[in-house]
Amino acid sequence: MRLLLFLFFMLLASSLAAQKYDWDDFVEEYTSDVERAEEEDLQLHLQELKELSEHPLNINTASVENLLQLPFLSEAQVEQIHAYIYLHGQMQTLAELRLVPLIDEVTRRRLSLFVYAEPEQQNVKDKLLGHLRSDFSTRLDVPLYYRLGQQQSGGYRGDPLYHRIRYQIGNSKHFQVGFRLEKDAGERFYDSYGAYAMLHDVGILTRAIVGDYRIGFGEGLVMGGSTWNSKSTPPLKTQGGIRPMTSNDEVNFLRGAAVTLSLGKHVRLSAFGSYRKRDATLTNLGEVQTLLTNGYHRTSTEWERRRNVGSTVLGGNVEWYNKGFHLGATGYWQKFNRVLNPGTQTYRAIYPKGDAFGAMGINYGYTRYRFSIAGETAYSTVGGGMATINRASWNIGRNYVLSAIQRFYAYQYYSFYSSALSENSNAQNESGVLVHLQAEPLTGLQLTTYVDFFHNPWPRYRMTHSSTGQEFMLQGIYAISRQHSLLARYQLKRKENGDLMEPHHRIKLQWTCEPSNRWRLQTTGSFHHVLGSKGLMFTQNVHYVLAKPSLSLNGQLGWFHTDDYLSRIYVQQPALYSSISSASYYGHGMLGVFTCRWQSNNGRWMLEARYGMVRYFDRDEQGSGLQAIMSPWKNDLSFQLRIKI
């Protein structure tokens, strides 16, 4: 009987392998509804996921904490995986995931990139520095045009090239070291840099990092810098603790040291400290008016604002978990070496003022088989405000997941490091309820829908009164056959802007065809209507594998026509490995993006090139200020080299 089951699983595994699900497929599926406003946070999130895919977990030995690093897995699904292994023994192939009750087809193929099945080897001792692997990558972007900032005095101080370098060495078990360098277009020097060293799973030491790191606990109300939130995905689990900073982001990280210890089987204790300098605009009195987040130091003015305010952060977290319950507490204290004074405008009146701040919160939750609840309630010293977020998720059988989130963020509440689900950029001045349903009612049909109601009691930017809004989305993906699938999405968002309610209607239709293992064709039509303004875009994507894994080609051609900027349309574009690319277009024009990737047979060398083009038919220049391009054309080249040893 065991032999028959094994042969059955092997046949299933070969069937799955034939479908060629890879990292590019995952990124396209995972980010299909992302708008440009979310891209920066998602870029960080994807880079962390790429690190996990480069060091896959053995599903037979992975702990709960290991599996919960994967954002598409819920606490209930992880519990079911462990229950299956406990009852039936170690998995021989990943095809056995079909027998785990709560693991659907989408989750199975995503897991294939992050885990493998291999019997545990007994009495094998892991060496701290054994089996070290190096990973080096560098990228160069070359614009084939000049911006106004490169052509006039008082403009950009450096050349128009973008360049970055990343290097990492370590093993997947205990040790990792890395550094990064980056120079933005228009900058003179490599003024963004960082490094880290990390130990993990050494005795009671769960993880220790010296250098640059990101951190998130609970639901992200107090510290939430390690997870990306999206309304289109179910609310799954708590934040992921401390992680090394592996991306080139210049803002969303801490610099210092952090450690997490396991005190027995059910308690984890974390502590962290950081000191770093931030960019800011200053008043005439030397006070901080705005903390800047773009990371640009191209002009003399931007250079003067570089790292002119220091920030010290001290904090910690303690968490208890046992038999599906978890309870934790998080807090931090922050001190700036300058006073924050955001100004007197109405919308800025709720911004933090002073030089010392703090926040603390309690998170809680319970998971049992198909049902899970969790939440966090926090308090900030800056305004004496409260905030709370609570979520519940119910797996109604294998193919249905119903979730709901309630949130209340007082306008007096503020945390510099919060990253919880919200309509606005911060977990502040918002209350709302979101209900989400993910379903597979028929074989080959995946439905996702959500509705979100939100309210902002304090006037936002360009508003003179409190405001409300609603958002609704319905998406269906139907696999017509092995070669053809159809996606349809309708999204309605009603949100006040400038004291005027703006109802945004967005429709997307997408047909995907895979006639063979080498070809994938994708045709997309997008429509946007708001206040009588209309926008339309058609794109055609072609993916071709010449001799996998040696060479692959991607191309996208598109045409767009919108009445104005209000009806602009966002589009996902082919990108270089381990990154995403999205842009918004308005007016009348066409676009083209082409990528080429070569990889050696042993997987150690990868070389990529990308060409991007935009041609406007309704204007002779594009952009504004120093970023203006005095031409209807915009052409870019990008190159990336990666070496793994």
Structural overview:
It is globular, with a radius of gyration of 25 Å. Residues about 1-20 have low confidence and may be disordered. It has helices at about 1-15, 25-30, 40-55, 65, 75-90, 105-110, 150, 300-305; strands spanning about 55-60, 115, 135-145, 160-170, 175-185, 190-200, 205-215, 240-245, 255-260, 265-280, 280, 290, 310-320, 325-340, 355-370, 370-380, 385-395, 400-410, 430-440, 445-455, 465-480, 485-495, 500-515, 520-530, 535-545, 550-560, 570-575, 580-585, 590-600, 605-615, 635-645. Helices cover about 10% and strands about 50% of the residues. The protein is mainly beta. Among the domains are: about 1-30 and about 55-120, DNA polymerase, domain 1, CATH 1.10.150; about 140-155 and about 515-645.
Q: What tags apply to this protein structure?
A:
645 residues, mainly beta, DNA polymerase, domain 1, 24-stranded antiparallel beta barrel, two-stranded parallel ribbon, 11% helix, disordered N terminus
Task: Summarize, please.
This protein is mainly beta. It is built from eight helices and 31 strands. Among the domains are: 1-30 and 56-120, DNA polymerase, domain 1, CATH 1.10.150; 138-155 and 514-645.
